Amino acid sequence: MTIKEAESFVKAVLLQQQINREVHGDTELDDQRKPMEWGVIAAEHMGHLLGALRNGNEQVIEKEILHVAGPLLECWNAVKTGVKKVWEYRCTGCGEIFTLAKSNNKCPLCESTLELEKVIAPQISEFLQK
Fold it and tell me: How far is CA 113 from CA 88, 104, 109, in A?
């Protein structure tokens, strides 16, 4: 697949996502859907895609690929925007370790420089339940 073909596919998926929201969805509700809901919608369309593949109708196959990819894109977005990261730091001055909800470079106790130990993000299983 060339870059141009990939770009064409991504544009088609984005258009399908927009059509899905305008025709079948409710923007406010869709913005609140959990990853699991988007996954179920994509799975339902996967069944349609398998039927189209079995029948061999290329036009229907292309349509169903987009019908699967649109909800998968929504699922991806729900996963990425639902992830709560925390940063773990060690203070260069007092040696304390802090787990903070946002990025920081100064110790809350002594205002020395904080060194990043690690970024902690939940495992996928943790936010699929959200």
Answer: 13, 9, 11
